[in-house]
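Researcher: We are triaging several targets before committing to wet-lab work. For this one, the compound of interest is zinc ion. I'm pasting the protein sequence and the ligand SMILES. What I need is the predicted three-dimensional arrangement of the protein with the ligand bound, expressed as structure tokens, so it can go straight into our comparison scripts without reformatting.
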Amino acid sequence: MFSGLKTKLLARPEVNLLVCAYCFGKLGHLLTHIFCLSRILSVMSSHRLLLVHAHPDDETIGTGITMAKYIKAGAKVTLVTCTSGEEGEVLVPELAHLASNKEDKLGPHRQIELANAMKALGVTDHRFLGGAGKFRDSGMIGTPPNERKDSFWQTDLQVSADELVKIIRETKPQVVITYDDFGGYGHPDHINAHRITHYASDLAKVSSYKPELGPAWEISKIYWTCIPKSQIQKGIDALASSGSKFFGVDSVDEVPFAVDDKYVTTRIEGFDLVDQKLAALRCHATQVEDTGPFFQMAQVVGPEALGVEYFRIAKGNVVKSGDFETDIFAGL
Ligand SMILES: [Zn+2]
């Protein structure tokens, strides 16, 4: 077992520099081992990942496996959620009174759902942009919530980007994950999450830009979440054969968030983490029904449906092994 671990670790050049053969050769030298182990852990935790999502539940649906996988590998993972999802539809009848057109108390409830989901995934550093409740869910374009001055969409871009500059400079991530320029499917908060991430990443690296927000930091790699068309087609076919429909559509061309396979660069696999992702999804009970499409996909398609997450590189270089890059920290 140890020789396998040794080979695996020594294959990593940065670990090779730190792990002494002495330590692996003499298991009895406990103190040496503790010293060695702490150095290995410090190498692993030097990987820092920041995710910028729009609403509670987006992080689990799109990147639950990725977060759990890198936490397990010892990386430092920080989740920033831009709004509390105050305008979400409430799927639990007993909690319908929380909705924005009734008591308008869904935000605080979803903050708790998020905290529980992060417990399920092992993520301890999760924050709301500017603090919980600072930027309100914008609802869809053309609806009254979208016109509110306190909505994320109506907030001046620099004001919200500065909040992220602060976090980038504090947490110093090498890798950042957010959405594409369409926010995946067009929701204003998702589009804005994309915009502030790219704006903040440009501002954060300029040492003369608001030094009071922290010392300059340049992110090495930025990824956009995505689902390749081929995978969505597999889901549509599998659900059709069991008599259901994937989000009510018949063809992949009707799915706004489907991305051409040729643009997909990176594939993160974690079949052993699917149960954790499902547990985290269940925590978002007001938003995700446990008889809904995600759970159906898990049953009908199998672990491939929820156990693999895909990304497009938006900054930095892809380091492929085969058809896809399989580690977002590859090359760093
Ligand atoms: Zn969302």
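Researcher: Any quick observations?
Model: The pocket of zinc ion is lined by residues 54-55, 58, 187, 190 (CB under 6 Å).
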